[in-house]
Structure formats: structure tokens, C-alpha cells
């Protein structure tokens, strides 16, 4: 019959001896965090002091066990950051883009504030103060910092470096009131006119515009897709001969440092994969693009450079901004077309339909970030109130 093992954190008989200097040495065997038994000893002037010191040492060893990282609560915060980044790579649950974003936010927003403190010194008050100070500068920065700080400290808790996560008790960040910015009908007309003028201008040097910028804008407005999703549309994603012509949104364009720009085979989330019917203006833009396209393989991109490589989202944003500055239309961004289309669908077809078009998992996200609230109350209320109170007195 196998002999039962003593629990982790258990120590054996305390043995006492005296040194040549007439000091007391007490020792015992302690079953450590990895299951192995090790000798632990201390030395003091008296036997009672030595036994008290040994028990204190064992209690501290039991409370703050070194995890597989080799860290303790007295380790510096930068050590946890390195361990957390390594753990994200090993877990491989997040996309490469998200991991790089988290690393950037940690190094630029969080690490400068906590770089000189140990993990034991990071309490609720310190975290709360840090987030409030950052929120004074920018709500979005504070929100991004909160995410990565919580994740790193949660890893320390899971690996028994810390007993609790102080981020669980910080006060909520208050989002400042903001109305989603959308284009008016007049602004849409001005944007189309400005792009048309730029594409038809006389060009004395360099290649002539090939019409892609205007076509990209029409597809953005006609699908409510993200700019990366529009640039990732392949010829095989188009179904223009169906009774209702449509496009399948199923990828996005990725540009990372030290990597070539490429198409990712899925958009931001799994729910973002969707098949969107094309309105007439977007369908005409797609057909016009197909008439000039050089590459006809189903995997070829609908919008691409002259050699067939993907456009970067930043280049399209920059070109759109430059063209609109010439046309005198400020603050034109691809994402505003997404909010504009969602607002129009919400007003005509309702919130649920707008959320489906955007590819959101929760209509509350659509309502909070993408829909401009219509302030006009149905004028029928005036007639009803007249009927109720107009004849009184």
C-alpha cells in the first residue's frame, strides 16, 4: 500500500543544534510548491528566537509561493510584463494584431507609471489613481491601459504570485458623452464631387487616377464595412449575377511592422463574416472596377495596386484626406461612412438591422458607438396633446 504524501506547505519535525559560537540552529524539511522536500533552517541567539524565526520563514514561504515564472510578490513590475507577453505568445489565443496592440499599450501607457514598483506595492489605490490621472488626458487611453493592466495582474493571480487582482476594485471609468459623427446628404454629395473632380483633372506627371478611390468610397457607403474589410474583398467574394447582387465580407487587410501588408482570412470577429446585398450605387462602382481589373483569379483582390498587391489602409486614408482637403471638405475618414450607413439603416429599418449590417454581436454596441440619435419626436404628439388638453378651461 502506497504511503500517502504530506500536503504541500507541510513541514516535518524541527531539529535544534548549537554552533561553535553558542548560537542555536533550527531546521526542518518542508514540502515545497513543486512537491519536493527541502531543508529550511535559521540561526538565532536563543532556541525560542530561532524557532519563531523558522516558523515565520515557513509562513512567508507558504503565503507567497514562487510560481513557474520564478517570480514572487517582491518582483518588479517590468518582470511581470515580460512574463505576461511571453505567456500571450505561448497561449496563442489572441490574433497577432491584438497582441502587438496590447504590447504597445502596456509599454507606452502602463509601464512608465509602474516601472519602479514591486508587485506587492501595486494596490487598488495606486491603480485607481493611475487610471484617473490618465483619463484626464484621454478616456480611450485610460480604457486601453485598464485592459492590459488587468490582464497582466490576473496572470500574476492565476500563477499564485499575488493573492488578488487590485483591478477588480478600481472605480469605473466614465465615458464622456459623445454623438457619433455622420455625413449629411450635402456632405456626401460634396465628397463625391470632390473625388470626381480629382480623378478627372489633368495630370502632368505620374500615373492618372484609376478610379479606385471613388469606387472604394461607394462600397464603404454601400456595405457599411470597415476600410480593411473593403480592401480585402476578392473577386470570388462577389456574387453579382444572383437575383440580389451581394458581396461576402470575410477578411481584412493587415499591415504590421516588419511584415508585408497581407489579407487576413477573417475580419475582426467571427460575427463580422457576413453577406451584404449591394445597393445600386455600390454595384455600379464594383462593375466599373471589374472593367479595368487586370487580375481575374477568384483570389485576386477587387481593389489593389497596379501589380496586384493589397492597398494599405493608411495609404487609402491619407489619399482620401488629401483629396478632400483640396475639395475643401474637412474631417473625411473611412469609418465615418460606416457610421453614416448604420445611422441611415437604423432610421429606416431599425437598430437590429443596422447591427446585422455592421456585423456586431450586440445591438448595444451599434447604438452606443455608431448611431446618431434622431432628436425629432414624432409630430403626432402635438395632435394628441391638443386632443387631451386643448379644450380644457
UniProtKB/TrEMBL annotation:
InterPro entries: CB, DNA_brk_join_enz, Integrase-like_cat_sf, Integrase_catalytic, Integrase_recombinase_N, Integrase_SAM-like_N, Tyrosine_recombinase_XerCD
UniProt keyword list: DNA integration, DNA recombination, DNA-binding
Domain Core-binding (CB): 75-157
Pfam families: Phage_int_SAM_3 (PF14659), Phage_integrase (PF00589)
Superkingdom classification of source: Bacteria
Recorded family membership: Belongs to the 'phage' integrase family.
Protein name stated in the entry: Site-specific integrase
Amino acid at each position: 500500500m502506497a504511503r500517502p504524501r504530506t500536503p504541500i506547505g507541510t513541514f516535518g519535525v524541527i531539529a535544534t543544534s548549537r554552533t561553535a559560537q553558542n548560537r542555536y540552529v533550527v531546521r526542518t524539511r518542508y514540502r515545497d510548491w513543486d512537491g519536493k522536500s527541502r531543508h529550511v533552517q535559521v540561526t538565532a541567539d536563543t532556541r525560542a528566537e530561532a524557532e519563531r524565526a523558522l516558523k515565520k520563514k515557513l509562513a512567508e514561504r507558504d503565503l507567497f509561493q514562487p510560481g513557474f515564472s520564478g517570480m514572487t510578490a517582491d518582483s518588479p513590475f517590468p518582470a511581470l510584463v515580460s512574463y505576461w507577453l511571453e505567456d500571450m505568445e505561448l497561449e496563442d489565443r489572441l490574433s497577432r494584431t491584438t497582441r502587438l496592440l496590447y504590447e504597445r499599450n502596456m509599454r507606452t501607457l502602463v509601464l512608465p507609471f509602474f516601472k519602479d514598483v514591486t508587485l506587492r506595492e501595486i494596490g487598488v489605490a495606486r491603480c485607481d489613481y493611475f487610471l484617473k490621472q490618465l483619463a484626464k488626458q484621454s478616456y480611450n487611453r485610460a480604457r486601453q491601459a485598464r485592459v492590459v493592466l488587468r490582464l497582466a495582474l490576473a496572470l500574476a493571480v492565476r500563477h499564485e504570485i499575488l493573492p488578488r487582482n487590485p483591478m477588480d476594485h478600481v472605480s469605473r471609468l466614465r465615458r464622456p458623452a459623445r454623438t457619433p459623427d455622420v455625413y449629411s446628404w450635402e456632405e456626401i454629395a460634396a465628397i463625391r464631387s470632390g473625388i470626381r473632380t480629382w480623378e478627372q483633372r489633368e495630370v502632368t506627371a505620374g500615373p492618372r487616377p484609376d478610379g479606385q478611390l471613388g469606387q472604394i468610397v461607394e462600397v464603404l457607403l454601400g456595405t457599411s464595412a470597415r476600410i480593411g474589410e473593403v480592401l480585402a474583398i476578392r473577386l470570388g467574394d462577389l456574387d453579382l449575377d444572383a437575383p440580389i447582387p451581394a458581396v461576402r465580407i470575410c477578411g481584412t487587410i493587415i499591415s504590421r511592422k516588419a511584415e508585408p501588408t497581407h489579407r487576413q482570412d477573417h475580419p475582426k470577429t467571427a460575427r463580422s463574416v457576413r453577406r451584404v446585398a449591394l445597393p445600386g450605387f455600390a454595384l455600379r462602382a464594383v462593375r466599373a472596377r471589374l472593367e479595368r481589373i487586370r487580375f481575374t483569379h477568384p483570389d485576386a483582390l477587387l481593389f489593389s495596386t497596379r501589380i496586384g498587391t493589397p492597398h494599405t489602409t493608411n495609404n487609402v486614408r491619407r489619399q482620401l484626406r488629401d483629396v478632400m482637403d483640396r475639395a475643401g471638405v474637412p474631417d473625411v475618414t473611412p469609418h465615418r461612412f460606416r457610421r453614416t450607413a448604420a445611422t441611415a439603416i437604423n432610421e429606416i429599418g431599425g437598430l437590429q438591422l443596422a447591427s446585422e449590417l455592421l456585423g456586431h454581436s450586440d445591438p448595444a454596441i451599434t447604438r452606443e458607438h455608431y448611431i446618431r440619435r434622431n432628436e425629432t419626436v414624432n409630430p403626432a404628439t402635438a395632435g394628441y396633446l391638443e386632443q387631451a388638453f386643448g379644450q380644457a378651461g
